[in-house]
Amino acid sequence: MATTSRSSRSAQRSSYRCSECGWTTAKWVGRCGECQSWGSVAEVGGEPVGRTVAAPVTSPAVPIGKVPAKEALHYPSGVPELDRVLGGGLVPGAAVLLAGEPGVGKSTLLLEVAARTAARDQRVLYVTGEESAAQVRLRADRTDAVHDQLYLAAETDLGAVLTHVEDVRPRLLVVDSVQTIGASGAEGVPGGVTQVKEVAAALVRVAKTRGITVVLVGHVTKDGSIAGPRVLEHLVDVVLHFEGESGSRFRMVRAVKNRFGPVDEVGCFDLGPEGIRAVTDPTGIFVERHHGKVAGTCVAVTMEGRRPLLAEVQSLVAQTSGERPRRTTSGVDGSRLAMVLAVLQQHCGIALSQRDVFASTVGGAKVTEPAADLALAISLASSHFLNPTPRGVVAMGEIGLSGELRRVRDVQQRLSEAARLGFELAVVPAEVGSSSRQRTIDGMRVLEVPDVGSALRRLELHRSFKLIEGG
């Protein structure tokens, strides 16, 4: 009897799982080893320990050379910017996860995709678990997304969703959101680790077996990562992040995982009361059109994925009113600003340690690439000396701690974009060991300079690098 009891206990193995990310361990710990959350690890009960036996195979193994190489065929989603990020469009049998903060426009974007797909006489099933069918219909009326081939269902049960798929037989399935759907056979509440894994796995199986495209909406945590277990991102084929500031209409879709295309593409959108529309040329959003010459501005050329974007950097240098000068940034990396200020003081003689410095970008753009260092330095010098930057100038280049300018990637692509938009002069880093020189590319003058001091002198922003008191 005792032997049987010990044998039964040995056949059961207790495990502990994190309720935040799904990480499991054989013993209890106070802090999750994956997401570092405190107090989130709890026992999930005994699991039978067995031995897996051989099972029939679905198809015999063949030499890899005899496997037919079939390229995944994309079909357009109807939204060109989204197709750009996906690598050509939606793929039959693919599972796509779209994550973003609340209110960023995920449902609006996917409703637009569903309507465009239905307009090509292809059935689409839109399952909403967060809103009622009437709420989605109101949004569809506002954005002109009503179509006979677009089917709408308000469900929160996985079994009911699968039944709708059987009845409708769609080409595209949209589930909004995966955290609101619950599986009756899994433990926990909808949105929990076990539930999300079960729901996502079932929907991925439907996509693979039926050859339909499944798009899942996912929530994000406070730090911007996708909520739920990490295995959710491994189950799907494509992971997209939908980003945007609450005070701006501009939105970006960025691919962080894509089995059918590149992961360095970015799609740009404009979210308004009438819906969401693609922005094929977003540069105008990030560049201010001034009526006259304005001090403290410079246009930088950054790369968002493989797309060059021009963003205007604005700086304001003012006399401080307190004991400690303020350093305030919006859209600019604060650590890069501190480094550029130190370089300007040490190597250019521009003392800003006792001045308040404010740096910002236009249109809510986030400029974190080191290639924007030179534009930031030019705007700071221009504001400090109250000397406007010449019109039609763009700048790109990383600033080193010794004041030298370092080359950045995709210079030719950046210059071509600036020339296309009508800029007349580009300031770029010179080759190693070279002095300043000027040449012409695509009708635009290109000024190559070795260091930040040379750039300021050539643009006549330096005033001999002497501090102007009270200015």
Automatic annotation (TrEMBL):
Keywords, alphabetical: ATP-binding, DNA damage, DNA repair, DNA-binding, Hydrolase, Metal-binding, Nucleotide-binding, Stress response, Zinc, Zinc-finger
Domain RecA family profile intervals: 71-220
Residues noted as binding ATP in the record, renumbered to the chain: 100-107
CDD domains: RadA_SMS_N (cd01121)
Motif RadA KNRFG motif mapped to chain: 257-261
GO biological process, one term: recombinational repair
One cellular component (GO) term of this entry: cytosol
Leader peptide range in chain numbering: none
Gene Ontology MF terms in the entry: ATP binding; ATP-dependent DNA damage sensor activity; damaged DNA binding; hydrolase activity; zinc ion binding
Domain notes: The middle region has homology to RecA with ATPase motifs including the RadA KNRFG motif, while the C-terminus is homologous to Lon protease.
Role according to the record: Plays a role in repairing double-strand DNA breaks, probably involving stabilizing or processing branched DNA or blocked replication forks.
Protein family membership: Belongs to the RecA family. RadA subfamily.
HAMAP family, per database record: RadA_bact
Protein name according to UniProt: DNA repair protein RadA
